[in-house]
Structure formats: structure tokens, C-alpha cells
Amino acid sequence: MANCEDSVPVKAKDYINQLNDYYAKKNPVSGNELFNGKPLFWKKLDGFEKAEQKLMMTIILDTYNRILSHMQNETEDENVQKSFIEVKKYLNNLKIHYFPEKHKDLKKHVNEVMALKETDPVVQRKALLELMTVYNEASKLKDPPVHTHRRRRQAKGARKQRSQS
Predict the structure, then answer these.
(1) Basic residues bias: where (predicted)?
(2) Which of 12, 88, 96, 148 is the most exposed place for a label (fewest CB within 10 A)?
């Protein structure tokens, strides 16, 4: 398996390492908190197909951009700010070159759906009016059923007899 840092440009690695060193000194966090077996992002991609992983990755990269921007705004150290700016450039370049723009639209739609107010009477009424259409569309998208019955094996002698016939 390839090293997870193989595709990270050397300069980006340098900037990331500088930021890690700076924050390790500035805000020491215990190893138990950092390495508690609950990664923020990496395991979120497990179990999804490639198209789904790409969508999730665009969301993760956007989240990184927000986190890094917040951290950049909090520091007064100009070298650290420069490192944040450079790392964000690398992330944005990665996002632009490897993840289609349609994911941006899809993410926008997901956010709109998640922001719906379930207590709003207009939303409730519209939801009821659209329910049968949405149900039908969801039924078309479902995965085909997995057949759980097992095939029966034939005895070796029975197979030989059939092949000789």
C-alpha cells in the first residue's frame, strides 16, 4: 500500500509540518485526545462507492478550508498565516483539478434540504404533496435485492455421470 503522503507536494508537506509544529507548541493536546481512534475525516469515506467518496471529499476539503481559515484569522504570526494561505491554495487546487464542479451544486442542494424547517406548515404541506413522487423515485434508486438462497452441491458421482452422458 502506498504511503498516504505520496501525492502531497513537498512544499505543501513543509507548510503542513510547520503548522503542526507551531500548534503542537502553542496548544499542546494530549495523545489520548488526538489519537483516540476516532478520526475526524478519514474513516468517513469507508463503505462508499467512488462517486460518493468524491462528493464526501469535496465536503471534507471545504471543511478543511473553513477550519484553516478560522485558525489563520486567530493567529498574529505572519509566518503561520503565510503557511495557512499556501496550504489552502494547495487544497483548493486539488479540489478544482480532481473533483467536478457538479459536486458543488449537489452539496448546495444537500444543504438546502438539510436546512428545511420541519415545523414550518408550508414545508410540511409541500412535503406531503411531493411524497408519492419522491417515494417512487427512491424505489427506482434502491439496490437490487441480494438473493440469500444457497445452491445445492451435487455429489461428485452425479456430475461425472452427467458429463459422460
Answers:
(1) 147-165
(2) 148
116/103 Cα distance (integer angstroms): 20
Q: Cα separation of 122 and 145, whole Å?
A: 36
- Model pLDDT for residues 98-126, shown as the tens digit of each residue: 777 777 777 788 888 889 898 888 888 88
DSSP state of 154: P
Q: How many CB atoms lie within 10 A of CB 99?
A: 15
Q: What is the pTM of this model?
A: 0.66
> According to the model, what pLDDT value does residue 123 have?
84
- Distance, in Å, from the CA atom of 119 to the CA atom of 3, rounded to the nearest integer, reads 48
Task: Say what the pLDDT of residue 4 is.
Answer: 57
Residue 79: CB partners within 8 Å, gap ≥ 6?
18
